[in-house]
Write a structure and sequence with these properties.
Number of domains: 1
CATH architecture: Up-down Bundle
Radius of gyration: 22 Å
Helix content: over 70%
CATH superfamily: Sodium/glucose cotransporter
Strand content: under 5%
Length: 494
């Protein structure tokens, strides 16, 4: 069956819509009730709302961190890139493999510093390390700006499936925004923590059924790969990648891995863990998600074999489900995608709100925003963050949704020297050097990215290189040079 017409012209029918509504509404209600139950048993302060009381054990942390790491980026954006470019879109697989040793080595140390100092954000940790309010605010502002396009990507994911259900005009985008706002406002961090298991279970069911049934429907994996090869640009003989794609592929994987756990939402999931051993065990277990990512990426190739033709790559997976499955299962698949965007987007908004409340807005001395008033401020800020993310969708219209995530990655990478390299006293970094490096990296990366039309790769001496990696290299070089030129004592964190 060929899906060359707009998705809204043939939705999943009444059964599919009903299945979608049941699972999507159940997720929101379950998340909201988790927040209410916790509030009734404990002091309903800001740290309960924003960090879950730093009480999450191994399994909750595993689903929470995995839940906010594997998002609409995974289910919508990666298959879309594979559909358009072929093997090049699989760069997300090595990056998820590279990132876990980084998590194992670095994140327990950051957790311990945060726990001992009562810190809840990357900016808190940086201020404790370098005793610089300006650097604290720069890191907080960078995290806030970087997470906005990532939240925008989640809204795009929810909008795509609502369009596939047949909602017209801008109604899908409005509905996506309102559902995310309600879910986050009512449940806080306990909402995604309580529903991450449901989200992962739904996605696993949808993907396993898809990678089993769709190839059988299309004549097997061999036929699927042959058909996809006929539609995609041909690589060189004996290679999966086309000429000139190897360096962009490798540098995108590396820069994405370095950026992944610097985001406010991934760091929030880590800091909410009960202890540092929980983080280490999770780093050892999280590669199981990489298998899921590889299977999801294959959906982009299956779409070619199924005859899916669309000018909007982000619509590939919904179109594929509509083409192959009965309406009720398509509705379930759409619900899995929407919940897969809803859960991490909530953590993203909460992480961004933490930065604003703790590091950007003035607070009375000794106030950490952990009382009821602090929770109210955090709720309002999280709502405003989602409004700003909505603005990204309206103002920026990249050809691929994945470019929104990669733009955020470029910006958040500029906090790597302060947050991670700052843990190494032997480098001699200081606040002035880090501020100079940050300014150079942000300016260089942003100018290149917007000049290239938000493409994540820039041609350097005829070779495509990740723009984020170029920018952070400039950042580190400037930070080291200035730090050695202008010495300033570093305050050791407790």
């Amino acid at each position: 069956m060929t899906a060359s017409t707009p998705l809204s012209s043939h939705g999943p029918g009444a059964a599919g819509i009903a299945v979608f509504v049941v699972f999507f509404a159940a997720t929101i209600l379950l998340g909201a009730s988790a927040g209410w139950r916790r509030a009734s048993r404990t002091q309903a302060g800001g740290e309960q709302w924003s960090l879950g009381g730093r009480s999450f054990g191994m399994w909750v942390t595993w689903f929470l961190v995995g839940g906010d790491f594997y998002t609409a980026y995974t289910v919508i954006a990666v298959p879309a890139l594979v559909y358009a470019t072929g093997a090049y879109g699989f760069f997300a697989l090595p990056y998820t493999i590279i990132v876990y040793p980084f998590v194992y080595a670095v994140m327990p140390k950051l957790w311990q510093i945060a726990r001992d100092g009562g810190h809840a954000t990357a900016a808190d940790i940086v201020r404790a390390r370098f005793d610089s309010v300006l650097l604290e605010r720069v890191v907080a502002l960078t995290g806030l700006v970087a997470v906005l396009p990532y939240i925008a990507l989640q809204l795009v994911g929810i909008r795509v499936v609502l369009e596939a259900l047949g909602l017209p005009g801008e109604i899908p985008l409005v509905a996506a925004f309102l559902s995310l706002a309600a879910y986050t406002w009512l449940g806080g961090l306990h909402a995604p923590a309580s529903t991450a298991f449901l989200k992962d279970a739904m996605i696993y069911v949808a993907v396993i059924v898809a990678v089993t049934v769709i190839p059988l429907h299309l004549g097997g994996y061999g036929a699927m790969f042959r058909t996809a090869a006929d539609h995609l640009p041909r690589p060189g003989a004996g290679h999966a990648l086309r000429a000139g794609q190897a360096v962009p592929y490798a540098t995108l994987a590396l820069s994405s891995a370095l950026a992944a756990f610097l985001y406010p939402h991934t760091l929030t999931g880590v800091l909410a863990a009960r202890d540092s051993d929980t983080i280490r065990r999770n780093a050892a277990m999280l590669p199981a998600y990489t298998l899921l990512l590889g299977l999801i990426a294959l959906l982009g190739l299956m779409a070619h074999a199924a005859g899916i033709v669309t000018a909007h790559p982000s619509a590939v997976v919904p179109a594929l489900f509509l083409a192959i499955f009965p309406g009720w299962f398509a509705g379930f698949g759409f619900a899995a995608i929407a919940v897969g965007a809803l859960v991490p987007a909530a953590v993203m908004a909460i992480g961004a709100a933490n930065l604003v409340i703790r590091n950007l807005l003035p607070r009375p001395a000794g106030d950490r925003g952990e009382d009821r008033a602090g929770r109210g401020r955090a709720r309002i800020v999280a709502l405003l963050v989602k409004v700003a993310a909505l603005g990204f969708i309206l103002l920026l219209d990249p050809a691929f949704a994945i470019n929104l995530q990669l733009l955020g990655g470029l910006w958040i990478l500029q906090t790597l020297p302060a947050l991670v390299l700052g843990l190494l006293p032997s480098l001699g970094l200081n606040a002035r050097g880090l501020l100079a490096g940050w300014a150079a990296g942000m300016l260089t990366g942003s100018l290149i990215a917007f000049a290239d039309g938000l493409k994540p790769v820039h041609a350097l001496l005829g070779v495509g290189v990740s723009t984020g990696l170029l920018a952070v290299t400039v950042n580190v070089v400037i930070a080291l040079l200035v730090s050695r030129t202008v010495s300033r004592p570093i305050r050791t964190p407790s």
